Task: structure prediction
Amino acid sequence: ASDVATIIVSGVSGVKVGTEKAWDYCNKIKLPRAFFINKLDRENSSYDKTLNSLQEKFGRSVVPLQFPIGKEENFNGIVNVITKKVRLYDKKGNIKIEDAPLELLDKIDEYNQIIMEAVAETSEELLEKYFEEGTLSFDEIYDGLIKGCVSGDIAPVMCGSAGKVIGMDAFIEDVIKCFPSPRFALKQKAINIKSNEKEFISYDENKPFSALVFKTIADPFVGKISMFKVITGKLSNEVNVINLNKNKSEKLSNIFFMKGKNQIQTKEVITGDIAAIAKLQYTETGDTLADVNYEYRYDKMNFPKTNISMSILPMAKGDEDKISIALQKLAEEDPTFKVSRDTENAETIISGVGETHIEVIASKMKNKFGVEVKLREPKIPYRETIKGSAFVQGKHKKQSGGHGQYGDVKILFEKRNDGIEELEFVDNVVGGVVPRNYIPAVEKGVKDSIEKGTLAGFPVIGLRAILKDGSYHPVDSSEMAFKMAASIAFKKGMEQAKSILLEPIMSLEVIVPDENMGDIIGDINKKRGRVIGMESYMEMQKIIAEVPMAEIFKYSTDLRSMTQARGTFDVRFLRYEEVPE
Result:
């Protein structure tokens, strides 16, 4: 939805990994970008030092439009390099605009030269004029800035202090004057509904209405708010449009602009506008809303995969319903957040893209929906199996007057070596020692028993049970009795055939810069992992390893701290292996 990215840089700590990642991302999707140097009221902050580090890191495209007056706690104004005007802010928040004092003119002229040189390079005509006359007019500078911003040749730099609200109005004014309007915005990737071919759609007011829903907000009072950006045409109130992803009709009424928490009602939105609407029935983030005659569906957004999961528990009894409503609404709002149910361990699992993400979800549940939860690591789905084999008898006999119970089976339990986890039940009974009609009951008895192993109560996998012999009573035998006999045989068999515990092993692929390779491999070895291979991957290194699930629940946090957030990873289940003693 953004036409330009503003990358915030701290005036204290300067260029960090986040700055580089944001810049690389803008380059990748060819998005115009600008910088805002923030926190200039803090101790040890320096505008000049931060500007120099930006120019060193990102080259000549970094152009200062503003610079501050005063340092640290004396920071109280912003100079506009183009207009040569100064904004002074007092403690009460009043703003005074005046001409720049004489002592600042040299610095203004120096920065003005940088801007004019950068602008002149955006077109042949401006370059000629600049060489001939040595200067450019206001209009030429502003037009050149817009063109340079669109092409990525110019990244303007603004400054201020968000905490003390110094420079915010100057920032907004420069956004309006120096940044490209939606007319210059990147074309939207779309698919033609009829031909199924990809196309790129320009922003155009004369086409039928179409918009992309880029964000959903779960408001406990208003309900679901869908924010959309108009890509073609215009929209007035009370219109029926089609959701092209769901092929359903939606009624759009009471359209509004969002300004902080306030909603400003509007009768019309036009191409390039960002607006919102409440209580749409079918629409989710990434959907296309359009006029009935519109033939293009916009490309879905790519969201990062979840890589950390936590189990969620209510703090108070009886909050389960509240939790499930809150989770459902938050999942609508945030496509990178997933909710699942682990039926085996009776846990609700929430997954996100990092530990902070999960904590933010928990605090949103408390603040927005009034339900407190605690988070803990999910239980590991261990399994059990046997190492050897055992031929055992299971006999269930109860005779206490009247109708008794009698079931007797002899079963050979052994390990399946074909890599299949399901139970294999083999009927090898000869001569009717166990009547045919009771054999399904024996199988059911073993199947029910493998749900809970004898070692630690985990499901048993990779087991073969061969029914070889048994006996029955013409009156007292029943399906129930044979089921019980099978269960007794199972317990004996598991003990005699050496039960072992198995743990899930995950396939881990980590992509990191070269300099972090040693740390990552050392950490994988510490986590009982095995490195399987390495290969180069887009100027980085990819490490492929196998690691037990128990060791990598919080791997996203570990990797972030080892690589200063430069590394990424992907993890998936591979197989089960014996747990070491």
About this structure: The mean pLDDT is 89. The longest strand covers residues 499-512. The two ends are 54 Å apart (CA to CA). The chain is about 25% helix and 35% strand.
